[in-house]
What we know:
mainly alpha; 7 helices
Amino acid sequence: MKSGNACYHSVQNPLSSSLLPSNMTIKIYRTVILLIMYGCEAWSVTLREEHSLRVFENRVLKRTFEPKRDEVTWEWRRLYKEELYDLYSSLNFIRAIKSRRMRWAGLVACMGNRRGAYRVLVGRRELKRPL
């Protein structure tokens, strides 16, 4: 989470700027913030870590897309999670991590018997090592 916060604070001003169009802020978000998911195929994410990732993602999206003016009352209001996900229209962190894990497991399953990652996946032990 420290690397995610560092990435967010490095681009906080452009993300929360009202001068940039929303599609540009989404591109900045995808290229910079989602870089913290590099290598997530090997992560073992606990429920506590999933919760902290969700909180981080919601906080960044709310700061990026808030506030919004209501069309009926013309008052400023906070966006709900569903509205944020509709604006962003992409997978959240947890789903992206799980889909990348499944894709990696599929690639490993297609590997040959002699590859170490395949042997770890299927649970076969190593052969005897030579002297």
